[in-house]
Design brief:
Length: about 325
């Protein structure tokens, strides 16, 4: 394919873009955001061990707003880990300037204390899909960047929390395939099945050699002792739909043996989504039973899945798959 030569006008535009980026970075490093004169004293009280002073400082810092953000950021390096979470929570409650917020999230996300890193994703998830500052995008410390770095954390709880937070971002680029694929073989089974579920929800093909054993991994997870793992594995198999046809016997066996109600529901819904005759034959009676359940979320989810399963069994047209029912929250 013949390349198009660059014109002087194109080069002029490129130079302007580079100049704009350079100015942005230079201004960010040389100029400071406005700092309220009372902020440093308020933050100093925040990091003390006196609960009364801490509570007073929290109220004052919130009232100072953006003027307190530089002082919050500067206090991080001198603060003990438990205070870093307090600083992060206050910064998130203020929210601006975005660049300082992203710096604070990035620093706390690198805490040497695993318990602190594990808390970060859940707190910052609502902010991850919001527009990042230009400086953070260029330097790689956006909130999404921090979450992606935690996918490789030594703590399985941090990896799982980061994965769940990133999965809430609609953009498929939020979790690069190269970052997600290693999690399919994570040492922690809950991370494995959650990663496969996220990949299935984002339309991954699972064609690469290192991805082709996902069905076996999910079927194995159906036997896990933890309900959350079994429910997530079943949901992933259902999300894969036609690709999971070979897993129907495992799902049927799991459905027959399952005692936990929500896991049973997720397994029945998964079979209804796969939609093969053996899957429908096994799931329709169970969904009829669950559609009479006194628990409203279970009843609603089962009724929707039952309508789909019966329509498929009669070969009639049906609308797109209904959402899965309630999930197991305990680990």
């Amino acid at each position: 394919m013949r390349s198009i030569p660059s014109t002087p006008k194109m080069w002029h535009r490129r130079l302007l873009v580079l100049l704009a980026l350079s100015v942005t970075l230079a201004c960010s490093s040389m100029l400071e955001y406005p700092r309220h004169p009372q902020a440093s004293l308020a933050v100093a009280r925040l990091v003390t061990d006196d609960p009364v002073l801490v509570k007073e400082a929290q109220v004052e810092i919130k009232s100072l707003g953006v003027g307190a953000m530089p002082a919050l950021r500067d206090a991080l390096t001198q603060s003990p880990p438990e205070k870093q979470i307090v600083i992060l929570d206050l910064a998130l409650s203020i929210g601006d300037p975005r660049e300082i917020l992203e710096q604070i999230v990035s620093q706390v996300g690198k805490s040497p204390v695993a318990a602190i890193r594990e808390l970060v994703p859940g707190r910052v998830a609502p902010f991850a899909s919001q527009p990042a500052s230009l400086v953070a995008q260029i330097r790689g410390f956006t909130i999404a960047d921090t979450l992606r770095s935690l996918l490789a954390d030594e703590s399985s709880a941090a990896r799982l929390a980061a994965l769940r937070a990133l999965s809430k971002i609609e953009s498929r680029d939020a979790i690069p395939e190269a970052s997600l694929t290693p999690l399919f073989h994570d040492p922690e089974q809950l991370v494995r099945v959650t990663a496969i579920l996220v990949g299935a929800e984002r339309g991954f093909s699972f064609d690469a050699p290192e991805q082709q054993d996902v069905l076996a991994l999910l079927q194995s997870a159906l036997q896990d002792q933890r309900p959350i793992v079994r429910a997530t594995a079943a949901k992933a198999l259902g999300t894969l739909q036609g690709k999971s046809a070979s897993a129907v016997p495992s799902l049927v066996l799991s459905l027959q043996n399952e005692k936990q109600q929500v896991v049973r529901l997720q397994t029945a819904i998964a079979l209804s989504r796969i939609g093969t005759p053996p899957a429908l034959e096994a799931t329709i009676p169970v969904l009829r039973e669950l559609s009479q359940n006194p628990d409203a979320p279970v009843r609603v989810a089962a009724t929707a899945a039952l309508a789909r399963a019966e329509a498929l069994s009669h070969g009639t047209m049906y609308s797109p798959p209904q959402p899965f029912g309630p999930t197991v929250s305990s680990q």
